[in-house]
Design goal:
The chain has 214 residues and is an all-alpha fold. The chain contains nine helices and no strands. The protein has helices at residues 2-18, 23-35, 37-71, 73-93, 100-104, 112-122, 125-137, 146-173, 180-211.
Length: 214
Amino acid sequence: MDIFIQILKGFLIGICASVPLGPVGILVIQKSLGYGQKTGFVTGLGAALLDVIYAVIAIFFLAIARRFLEANTILILIVGGLVVIAVGVIMFFQDPFRKLKEDKQDSKFSMSGFFQAIAICASNPGAILIMFGLFAFFRVDTSAADSTVGLLLLAVAAGSVAYWFLFSWAFGRWSRKLNLRTLLWINRVFGILLFIIGIVMLADGVYQLIFRTC
């Protein structure tokens, strides 16, 4: 029963780590709309691969990560807030779908999205922090036997792969029905939300820096 619960937690972690509509989500949408569901799914697999790698790090270095986060809370809030603000501003002003119509004219399977997704995830330190947070939130037992850890990692991979399959399938199926202008405004709304979250993080970090270090 405990093993089943661990596997279920791993599956949920894989889904939760993939759900936020960040740069990879935008990329998967672009690939699914421009090249079809298969290319969009392969792009998502690049993110899923990094999720598994981050899960391995979370399992073996969770305690170290917790101590690091506790010792550098203010720095993480300030730097993270600035990064999130920047991403939000970029998302608001950037049109990720501007070349979509041109891409559709030459619709064919492409592996480029897989490597692009890996590059995006690898250059985003926030992704691994999300994985640490999810492992802590779900109270995953990282001291389990090697066989259980292997099943846990497979569950994380299965959750992430399942999410990206459904995500790319949805956009690939409805590519002809989606209004690109609507997608653009959805992207801008997410940019505004990220900007607000970044402001809150930055304000919290500055507050702690001023009042808790005095």
